[in-house]
Amino acid sequence: MTGGRYRHLFSPLRVGPITVANRVVFSAHLTNYAVDGLPSEQHAAYYAARAAGGVGLVITEEHSTHPTDWPYEKLIHGFQRDVIPGYRRITEAVHAHGVPIVAQLNHNGGQSSGMYSRLPVWAPSPVPDPMFREVPKEVDHAEIAEIVAGYARVAGHCAEGGFDGVELQCSHSSIVRGFLSPATNRRTDRYGGSLENRARILLEIIDAVRAAIGTERALGVRLCGDELIEGGTTIDEAVEVARMVEATGQVDYINTSIGVATSTLYMIEASMAIPPGYALFIANAIRRAVRLPVVGVGRIKDPVQAERALAEGHCDLVGVVRGQIADPDFMAKARAGYATEIRTCLSCNQECVGRMGLNRWLGCIENPRTGHEAVPLPPPGPRPKRVLVVGGGPAGLQAASTAARRGHQVTLFERAATTGGQVAVAASVPGRAEFLDLVRNLLAECRRHGVDIRTGTEVTAARLREEAPDEVVLATGARPQPPHWAGGLDRVVDVRDVLEGRAAPSGGVLVVDDLGFHQATSVAELLADRGCRVRVSTSGMVVGQDLGVTLDLEMFTVRARNKGIRQTTDEVVLSATAEATGGGVVLQVLTHTTGAMAEVRADWVVCAVHQEPEDELWHALKGAPFPVHRAGDCLTPRRAHAAVIEGDRVGAAL
Question: Which residue ranges in the chain fall short of pLDDT 70?
Answer without folding.
Answer: 1-4
